[in-house]
């Protein structure tokens, strides 16, 4: 929190006596300021001090706001602070906020501090759902807010989860889809990565360029009643006055652009809007609270004055500011180019250094490998020398063995000669053995014939013996004289039958089977449509709010914020 103590322009130190001073705390969008004020100081004195402290020159957009009896009010510049109906408390808390909005933020907001304050205020209103923002626009706006805070996207730095503690989307949008925080962060990061090269000021102005097209951007709403007693909503903004149904803040029933309003009168708590066209009806309305009526009148006068001011030649002060802004922008651009050039040179130097380091490491590795190869070569040389010695010894041994082999060959040759002689002898003996076998076969055949002949002789001899015995018996029986007996012999013949059995061979066949198993954004609306398409399938229809339904209907009809002004056309000045 920034605390500033003022000591001039009607302000004095807090060290003065409490009876002559009071403390004021100014709450801005990004810091709190604290001042000690004299009792007689006016609203203009306090407002100017705040603007000087902030370095703000585009003061016509801003004011000091406070709340009294649940009603918003703005500090009057021409009256003493303590003479107004401000809260009677110390320190007195006032909010430094934008009271009037530009029609085109990029063209009208000159100073960076002005853009920054508008960015913070509009972002807060969107997140707190005071300004309706569709989901796809919410994601894109969030990506610009991240670019403004974190700068360019770097995957090694901005890792998943770096947005976990950031409030970037309205709770209504988060609850509308079946998406986790990680899924939302992924969508935002994809858009964020596309904003590379944008500065904080450029990202914030891109944010405002998108936000200024939202239907509720820069509109102050008030509950009113027309002369028939019908409850309505009055919207006051930079473009004109708008009349809404109480349940539809997106699409006005009728609009009155500032250049088509001839006069706005206020008397006896009743307002009358008189169009430039005298044939058109006068629109009358009122509010139940006097403070609200005064606030409506202030906003109408202020917005109309700025509307006319925009259509005139810029004042000398504004021209000076724009010239300074252009110079500052050119200076920043040159500084940025210089920084980019230095960054590029540094990156090239780092790449060259990395390349040299890589080359050095490579050369060190090559030297190490060469050293290892040298050691291996030395070891190999020693090994080869040892092997040469062994080979020499083996050669000697082989020569000796060759001599022995030559002697053995000679011996074998001599042996072979002898073997030839022995072979001839064996052949001769073989022939003799064959002749002998032939003779023996002939002899065996002859002997078999002789044996057969002997068998026949034996049979005949036995037959003769039988006859002789018979005759002897006959003689014995006659002469009772026994002749000498003769011995007999008999032979036995055995034979064997052999039967050859043929063996049968069986074979089996095995079969095998085989199984083959056997591919990004041209315009902002296209980007928004793409984002909408990506997340549409995850939307929970039952959680859609009344404003979501109205926004979808407007989108389907092709109704935009600017098209609403075509309903009534008038020409004139207040």
TrEMBL record:
<dbReference type="InterPro" id="IPR019747">
    <property type="entry name" value="FERM_CS"/>
</dbReference>
<dbReference type="InterPro" id="IPR035963">
    <property type="entry name" value="FERM_2"/>
</dbReference>
<dbReference type="InterPro" id="IPR046810">
    <property type="entry name" value="ERM_helical"/>
</dbReference>
<dbReference type="Pfam" id="PF00769">
    <property type="entry name" value="ERM_C"/>
</dbReference>
<dbReference type="InterPro" id="IPR011259">
    <property type="entry name" value="ERM_C_dom"/>
</dbReference>
<dbReference type="InterPro" id="IPR018980">
    <property type="entry name" value="FERM_PH-like_C"/>
</dbReference>
<dbReference type="InterPro" id="IPR011174">
    <property type="entry name" value="ERM"/>
</dbReference>
<keyword id="KW-1003">Cell membrane</keyword>
<dbReference type="InterPro" id="IPR000299">
    <property type="entry name" value="FERM_domain"/>
</dbReference>
<dbReference type="InterPro" id="IPR011993">
    <property type="entry name" value="PH-like_dom_sf"/>
</dbReference>
<dbReference type="InterPro" id="IPR019748">
    <property type="entry name" value="FERM_central"/>
</dbReference>
<feature type="coiled-coil region">
    <location>
        <begin position="507"/>
        <end position="548"/>
    </location>
</feature>
<dbReference type="Pfam" id="PF09380">
    <property type="entry name" value="FERM_C"/>
</dbReference>
<dbReference type="Pfam" id="PF00373">
    <property type="entry name" value="FERM_M"/>
</dbReference>
<dbReference type="InterPro" id="IPR018979">
    <property type="entry name" value="FERM_N"/>
</dbReference>
<feature type="coiled-coil region">
    <location>
        <begin position="313"/>
        <end position="471"/>
    </location>
</feature>
<dbReference type="InterPro" id="IPR041789">
    <property type="entry name" value="ERM_FERM_C"/>
</dbReference>
<feature type="domain" description="FERM">
    <location>
        <begin position="20"/>
        <end position="311"/>
    </location>
</feature>
<protein>
    <recommendedName>
        <fullName>FERM domain-containing protein</fullName>
    </recommendedName>
</protein>
<dbReference type="InterPro" id="IPR008954">
    <property type="entry name" value="Moesin_tail_sf"/>
</dbReference>
<dbReference type="Pfam" id="PF09379">
    <property type="entry name" value="FERM_N"/>
</dbReference>
<dbReference type="GO" id="GO:0003779">
    <property type="term" value="F:actin binding"/>
</dbReference>
<dbReference type="InterPro" id="IPR019749">
    <property type="entry name" value="Band_41_domain"/>
</dbReference>
<keyword id="KW-0472">Membrane</keyword>
<dbReference type="InterPro" id="IPR000798">
    <property type="entry name" value="Ez/rad/moesin-like"/>
</dbReference>
<dbReference type="Pfam" id="PF20492">
    <property type="entry name" value="ERM_helical"/>
</dbReference>
<dbReference type="GO" id="GO:0005886">
    <property type="term" value="C:plasma membrane"/>
</dbReference>
<dbReference type="InterPro" id="IPR029071">
    <property type="entry name" value="Ubiquitin-like_domsf"/>
</dbReference>
<keyword id="KW-0175">Coiled coil</keyword>
<dbReference type="InterPro" id="IPR014352">
    <property type="entry name" value="FERM/acyl-CoA-bd_prot_sf"/>
</dbReference>
<feature type="binding site">
    <location>
        <begin position="76"/>
        <end position="79"/>
    </location>
    <ligand>
        <name>a 1,2-diacyl-sn-glycero-3-phospho-(1D-myo-inositol)</name>
    </ligand>
</feature>
<feature type="binding site">
    <location>
        <position position="294"/>
    </location>
    <ligand>
        <name>a 1,2-diacyl-sn-glycero-3-phospho-(1D-myo-inositol)</name>
    </ligand>
</feature>
């Amino acid at each position: 929190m920034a605390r500033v103590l003022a000591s001039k322009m009607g302000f004095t130190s807090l060290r003065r006596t409490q009876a002559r001073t009071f403390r004021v705390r100014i709450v801005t969008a990004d810091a709190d300021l604290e001042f000690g004020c004299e009792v007689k100081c006016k609203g203009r004195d306090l407002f100017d001090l705040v603007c000087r402290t902030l370095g703000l020159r585009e003061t016509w957009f801003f004011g000091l706001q406070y709340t009294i009896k649940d009603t918003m009010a703005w500090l009057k510049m021409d009256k003493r602070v303590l003479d107004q109906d401000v809260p009677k408390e110390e320190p007195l808390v006032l909010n430094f906020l934008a009271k009037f909005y530009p029609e085109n933020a990029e063209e009208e907001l000159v100073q960076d501090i002005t853009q920054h304050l508008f960015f913070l205020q509009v972002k807060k209103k969107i997140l707190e759902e005071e300004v309706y923002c569709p989901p796809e626009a919410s994601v894109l706006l969030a990506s610009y807010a991240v670019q403004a805070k974190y700068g360019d996207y770097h995957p090694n730095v901005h890792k998943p989860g770096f947005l976990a503690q950031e409030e970037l989307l309205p709770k209504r949008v988060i609850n509308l889809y079946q998406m986790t925080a990680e899924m939302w962060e992924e969508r935002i990061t994809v858009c964020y990565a596309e904003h590379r090269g944008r500065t904080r000021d450029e990202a914030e102005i891109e944010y405002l360029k998108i936000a200024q097209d939202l239907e509720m951007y820069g509109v102050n709403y008030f509950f009113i009643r027309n002369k028939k007693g019908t409850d309505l909503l009055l919207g006051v903004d930079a473009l004109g006055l708008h009349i809404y149904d109480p349940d539809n803040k997106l699409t006005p029933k009728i609009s009155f652009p500032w250049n088509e309003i001839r006069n706005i009168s206020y008397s006896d708590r009743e307002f009358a809007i008189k169009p430039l066209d005298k044939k058109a009806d006068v629109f009358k309305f009122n509010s139940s609270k006097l403070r609200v009526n005064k606030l409506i009148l202030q906003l109408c006068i202020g917005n109309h004055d700025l509307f006319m001011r925009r259509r005139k030649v810029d004042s000398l002060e504004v021209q000076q500011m724009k010239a300074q802004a252009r110079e500052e922008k050119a200076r920043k651009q040159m500084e940025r180019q210089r920084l980019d050039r230095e960054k590029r040179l540094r990156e090239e130097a780092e790449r060259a250094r990395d390349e040299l380091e890589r080359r050095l490491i490579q050369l060190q590795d090559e030297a190490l490998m060469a050293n290892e190869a040298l050691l291996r070569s030395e070891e190999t040389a020693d090994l080869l020398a040892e092997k040469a010695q062994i080979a020499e010894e083996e050669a000697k041994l082989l020569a000796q063995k060759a001599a022995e082999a030559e002697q053995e060959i000679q011996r074998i040759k001599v042996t072979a000669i002898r073997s030839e002689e022995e072979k001839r002898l064996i052949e001769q003996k073989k022939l003799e053995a064959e002749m002998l076998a032939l003779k023996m076969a002939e002899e065996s055949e002859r002997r078999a014939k002789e044996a057969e002949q002997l068998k026949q002789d034996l049979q005949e001899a036995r037959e003769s013996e039988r006859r002789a015995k018979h005759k002897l018996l006959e003689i014995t029986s006659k002469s009772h004289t026994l002749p000498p007996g003769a011995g007999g012999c008999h032979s036995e013949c055995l034979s064997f039958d052999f039967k050859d059995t043929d063996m049968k061979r069986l074979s089996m066949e095995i079969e095998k089977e085989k199984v083959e198993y056997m591919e990004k954004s041209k315009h902002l609306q296209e980007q928004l449509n793409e984002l909408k398409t990506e997340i549409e399938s995850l939307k929970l229809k039952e959680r859609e709010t009344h404003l979501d339904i109205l926004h979808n209907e407007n989108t389907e009809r092709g109704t935009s914020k600017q098209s609403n002004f075509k309903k009534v056309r008038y020409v004139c000045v207040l």
